[in-house]
Amino acid sequence: MRFAPLTAEQAAAYLPHSQQGFADDLVRAGALDAERALRKAVADYSSLDEGGTTYVAGYADIDGTEQWVGVIGWALTGFDADHEERTLYIYDLEVFERFRQRGFAEGLLAYAAQRAAEAGADAVRLTVWAGNDSAEALYRKVGFLPEQQRMRLRLSER
């Protein structure tokens, strides 16, 4: 795989897709209804260059042609208050649907881990929303371990 920063054109095309994906995760996890989830996603991620986040495109040779197969976005967060570790936090990872199940997600994660090590980070962290079993399986496969679990009781449903 080859990796390069997202171009302005790629970022403009990817942003609404990323916002919708985040909203879908919130809905699938039962955190918000669809309308509120999309409002939150748009508010939280109004651009891809906020907060020092780095977005990288992954490219792969598909039938003799280099194609854009996915995206990973991360920020080096400094020291994690709970762990006192310099942490690279992954905010976004996607392999586009038609390229899934070919090892590209593992390649994107390995690249992020390499960049984290080069930056002196002690850990790579990310969040997996409830119900995203395929993502959780991927992260476990490459060595991520669960650290905590959050639970909620919705008072409006009692």
From TrEMBL:
Its EC number is 2.3.1.-. It comes from Longivirga aurantiaca. Keywords: Acyltransferase, Transferase. It holds the Pfam family Acetyltransf_1. GO terms for molecular function: acyltransferase activity. Residues 1-158 form the N-acetyltransferase domain. It is an enzyme of class 2 (transferase). Coiled coil: none annotated. This is GNAT family N-acetyltransferase.
